[in-house]
Amino acid sequence: DAAEKKDAVEKKDEVNPDGKVKKQRDSTKTRSSRAGLQFPVGRIHRFIKRRAPSLRIAGGAAIYLAAVLEYLTAEVLELAGNAARDNKKTRIIPRHIQLAIRNDEELNKLLGHVTIAAGGVLPNIHSALLPKDTGKAEKDKKDHGEKGDHGDKADVDKAEAGQK
């Protein structure tokens, strides 16, 4: 019993006046860490309660919402990071977030009416505005001795025809 009390003092446990050892609780764990999340479950719960004061909000609702928000954020950040890497940049800017969201079908549907400040627009040229590819332009290139779209392959074909 004396050894137990001595152990309790070393572990910073409390010894009651009646001689019983009261174990000190480990440091409190946040609901976020219990759920394995980075987003703050307690803060989200508080925001939900503040938004709808007449409703009772279950604890699981805040955890679920925090998990969904964390997942969506991770998804957008991963795609934006890929867009930044494609542009040879190491820092994600609003333009990269815009490109990530607009190039992903599901995120574009979810965030279709969202405006991202300094995000710009997707590069898009209407097909009617592009120059028309006609057979006449191709014929002119061949008549003037220029290589067409086939390049060296056309020259090889001509050389083979001359050998026969």
Automatic annotation (TrEMBL):
Localization annotation: Chromosome; Nucleus
Domain Core Histone H2A/H2B/H3 residue range list: 21-102
Claim: Secreted is one of the keywords in the record: no
Segments of skewed composition (Basic and acidic residues): 1-29, 133-164
UniProt-listed InterPro entries: H2A/H2B/H3, Histone-fold, Histone_H2A, Histone_H2A_C, Histone_H2A_CS
Cited PROSITE patterns: HISTONE_H2A
Start and end residues of each Histone H2A C-terminal domain: 105-139
Quaternary state and interactors: The nucleosome is a histone octamer containing two molecules each of H2A, H2B, H3 and H4 assembled in one H3-H4 heterotetramer and two H2A-H2B heterodimers. The octamer wraps approximately 147 bp of DNA.
Family designation: Belongs to the histone H2A family.
Protein name as catalogued: Histone H2A
